[in-house]
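Just wondering, does anyone understand what follows?

——
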Amino acid sequence: MLVRIVNTKYNDSVIIEAETIEEIRRIAREEVEKRGWDIQDMYSEEVVS
């Protein structure tokens, strides 16, 4: 599963690949914290290939 986390404030995004939604949530939290993003500035979408 691929998910894109989009930050509208910085016009930036990160794509996360994982097998389960729990893994995606864990990785997303780590990436958001690492970048110092505010949750109010973000949304997520599934990447369909």
Summary: The mean pLDDT is 96. The beta strands are 2-7, 12-17, 42-46. Residues 28 and 34 are 10 Å apart (CA to CA).
